[in-house]
Amino acid sequence: MAGVLSLIVAAEEAAEEVNEASDLYPHWEELLVGALAFAILFYFMWKWVLPRIGALLDERREKIQGELEQAEATRSEADALLADYRTQLAGARDEANRIIEEARQTADQVRIDLQAKAEQESQATVARAQEEIRAERDRVFQELRSQVGEIAVELAGRVVGESLDTSAHERLIDEYIDQVTGGGAQN
Amino acid sequence: MSGAVAAVLGQFHPPTTKDFVWDCWGPSLDVGGLSFCMNFIHFLVVLGFILFIAFFYFGLRKPAVVPGRMQSLAELGIGFVKENVAMPMLGTESARFMPLLATLFFAIFFWNIFEVAPGINFSSNSRVAFPLVMALVAWVTYNAVGIKKHGFFGYLKHVMVPPGAPVPLYVLLVPIEFLTQIIIRPITLTVRLWANFMAGHFLLAVFFLGTIAMLQGGFTAIFAPFSFAIAIALVGFEIFVSGLQAFIFAILTASYIGGAMAEEH
User: What does pTM read for this prediction?
Assistant: First the structure.
């Protein structure tokens, strides 16, 4: 400790010996050098540094602003496009509904037509069948009528037991006819 | 005195005011009774000057919208002065005074920082002349701004007659205000910066030279690590002081300008 203390004392003593206030006084040369250096630095800052920084900030601001505006434009364009698509979609949906409705109507029409046609055809078929049946019946009836005469004659011949000879037959018929013509009054 | 103390005394040369006196390195140029020459002090002024120019020149040589490292630093520096010195003190008028405030801040900082530059450890601002020049610039500026704004007598009234005090107090207030605002402000600006760096130089010198002296002083060597640790800490402190003093000088100048421009309350 003693060493350090005496060191401080010694320092003070030494300081008293050599320190002079006039050592610290400003010199005119220094003032002028300082003023010149400061003036040049000021001019440099004023005319070169700050304008460059200012231009830079302006440029940056414009760029950011431009980008924001572009983004805004892109966004509104996208919005318009979206609205457009939505309209188109709605149109397409309407169109689809309309087509479906049309198809349904067409189908209905076709169904009704087919039904009508089928009904008509079936009626025609039925009518034709009835016609044929009636014709057949008439033909059969006609045939039967002619055959019935012959059968009746043959049957009558068998019933009589003996075939009437032609002369007797003719006579019988004549008699029948006479009977029918004149016999009405006798019987 | 013991032998150990004698040994210490033999090696330890305490820093003195002679640290602030430097001889010419070469021939001097005599102009009108003044003798200019290159010496250590002027060399430091030139060095700080070059550092200032280089910092901004290489930062803004090719300004790009997306900045590189140097440009970021330069922009950050200017932005700092703008946002923390000019805007708070001057508001809408700040752009007009940005050249002065930015020059003050960076010139003082780049001249200060040689205090901690290894191998140099000396700031030109520890010579009173250089702070004095800048304080005079600040003084002329804020007074000129005030006179331009209020007229000569209007400015004197603005300075010396703060409104709202009881009338008898003006007997005291007028001289006090005149002294503080016109006479003392440039002196305090000067002394605050100068004394910080003169004292800073002494502090660093004492602890670095003290470390060496103790190492050579026999048993006192055991104290040397403490001295050295303090010296290292002081280097950090001086870096801080370099920025702080530059900031204080600039912000006080801005404040004085703002005060001189203020409307009558």
Answer: 0.71
